């Protein structure tokens, strides 16, 4: 990891007791503002001795349930409810979140692929470096709240990558159960260490993520699951006292994708007609949908079929597709 100190600063004091709100200043020198900075919103609530929890949303700017849930949490948290410290970033990738885009409009980078970042790099790399080298250094636990964004819609679930250490895997599973989403999903490896999950594992932070709805909007049911889950997570790790939603109402179904055969992709360009629905149980070889080419009249549609068996966890939202677009992905029981 790059050992150069961050060039970012903050208007809050992470060591100060009480409730503070402010900004992390991301240096941004451009034509209209020679010595300017971009304001990444941050809140810190600290009271007494206890664990430190890092809560993040807006890693992808078009994923909204987490941004809403954490905005409401900041307003509602009282200092005397806390035993320890909670650091909240409701729009951690501020340029992307402000624009409502998955990637930053400044440098076109995906924050969840570039950890550990670079303090000398473009804005997204600087954010990743600050999160891993400053905030995760303080944290014992973390939540990174995602949803399907503009291109996908998910069943509400907690997510993680498969930790190499069995003890860590068991702890992550326990935190997933405490969150109380209907499903938990473990992604296959394949992002070369560049996600927040990988950053947390490098820093010894126990972290869980979420996928809550999507379609470029806020779904009321997923938002409610997300809000209650955050409360349960905070209570489980011992930082939130007297949480009314501390006990998960039902067990979470544990799922994983052993490999990328559990992901179904478009094989050509056209309009996607889905056949399978979220929550369907499908078998290898089942029809997933069709890709039509209305620009080529009389051309038969191309079939998309599943290459594995499992539960439909996620489905594409936009109708227009090109070769390589993800149409579905599946999970099977662990």
Structure keywords:
about 325 residues; alpha+beta; OB fold (Dihydrolipoamide Acetyltransferase, E2P); 2 domains; 5-stranded mixed beta barrel; 4-stranded antiparallel beta sheet; 18 strands
Task: Give the topology, please.
Elements: E1 9-10, E2 18-27, E3 37-47, E4 52-57, H1 65-76, E5 84-89, H2 94-99, H3 123-138, E6 141-146, E7 152-161, H4 166-179, E8 183-187, H5 196-203, E9 206-214, H6 220-236, E10 253-256, E11 263-265, E12 270-274, E13 281-282, E14 287-292, E15 302-305, E16 310-316, E17 320-321, E18 326-333
Helix pairs in contact: 1-6, 3-5, 4-6
Protein architecture, described:
There is one protein chain. The protein is α+β, with helices and mostly antiparallel strands and 334 residues long. The protein has helices at 65-76, 94-99, 123-138, 166-179, 196-203, 220-236; strands at residues 9-10, 18-27, 37-47, 52-57, 84-89, 141-146, 152-161, 183-187, 206-214, 253-256, 263-265, 270-274, 281-282, 287-292, 302-305, 310-316, 320-321, 326-333. It contains 6 helices and 18 strands. Helices cover 22% and strands 32% of the residues. The longest helix has 17 residues, at 220-236. Helix 1 crosses helix 6 (220-236) and helix 3 packs parallel to helix 5. The chain folds into 2 domains: 9-256, Zn peptidases (Aminopeptidase); 260-333, RNA polymerase II/Efflux pump adaptor protein, barrel-sandwich hybrid domain (OB fold (Dihydrolipoamide Acetyltransferase, E2P)). It is globular and about 65 Å long.
**Number of helical elements:** 6
Number of strands: 18
Report low-confidence residues grouped into runs of 5 or more: none
Percent in strands:
25-35%
> CATH architecture of the largest domain, please?
3-Layer(aba) Sandwich
Overall pLDDT level:
94
CATH hierarchy class name of the largest domain: Alpha Beta
Q: What's the arrangement of strands in the largest beta sheet?
A: 7-8-10-18-16
CATH level 4 superfamily of the largest domain: Zn peptidases
Major sheet attributes = 5 strands, mixed, barrel
Number of domain units: 2
What is the H/E order? EEEEHEHHEEHEHEHEEEEEEEEE
Shape: globular
Percent range for helical residues? 10-25%
Rg from alpha-carbon coordinates: 20 Å
User: What is the terminal separation in angstroms?
Assistant: 33 Å
Q: Class by helix and strand content? A: alpha+beta
């Amino acid at each position: 990891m790059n050992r150069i100190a961050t060039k970012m600063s903050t208007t809050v004091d992470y060591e100060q007791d009480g409730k503070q709100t402010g900004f992390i200043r991301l240096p941004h020198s451009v034509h209209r503002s020679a010595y300017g900075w971009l304001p990444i919103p941050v809140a810190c609530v600290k009271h007494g001795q206890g664990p430190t929890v890092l809560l993040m949303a807006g890693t992808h700017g078009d994923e909204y349930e987490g941004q809403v849930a954490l905005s409401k949490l900041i307003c509602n948290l009282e200092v005397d409810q806390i035993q320890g410290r909670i650091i909240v970033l409701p729009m951690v990738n501020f340029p992307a979140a402000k624009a409502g885009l998955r990637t930053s409009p400044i440098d076109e980078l995906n924050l969840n692929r570039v950890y550990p970042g670079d303090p000398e790099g473009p804005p997204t790399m600087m954010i990743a470096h600050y999160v891993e080298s400053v905030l995760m250094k303080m944290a014992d636990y973390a939540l990174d709240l995602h949803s399907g964004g503009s291109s996908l819609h998910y069943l509400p679930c907690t997510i993680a990558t498969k930790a190499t250490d069995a003890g860590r895997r068991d702890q992550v599973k326990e935190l997933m159960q405490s969150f109380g989403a209907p499903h938990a999903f473990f992604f296959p490896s394949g992002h070369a260490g560049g996600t927040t999950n990988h950053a947390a594992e490098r820093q010894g932070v126990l972290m869980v993520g979420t996928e809550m709805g999507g379609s470029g909007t806020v779904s009321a049911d997923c938002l409610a699951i997300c809000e209650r889950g955050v409360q349960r997570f905070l209570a489980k790790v011992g930082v939130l006292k007297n949480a009314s939603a501390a006990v998960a109402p039902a067990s979470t179904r544990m799922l994983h994708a052993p490999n990328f055969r559990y992901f179904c992709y478009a094989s050509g360009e056209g309009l996607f007609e889905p056949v399978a629905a979220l929550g369907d149980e499908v078998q290898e070889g089942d029809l997933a949908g069709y890709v039509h080419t209305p620009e080529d009249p009389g051309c038969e549609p191309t079939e998309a079929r599943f290459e594995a068996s499992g539960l439909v966890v996620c489905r594409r939202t936009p109708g227009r597709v090109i070769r390589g677009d993800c149409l579905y992905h599946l999970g099977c029981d662990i």
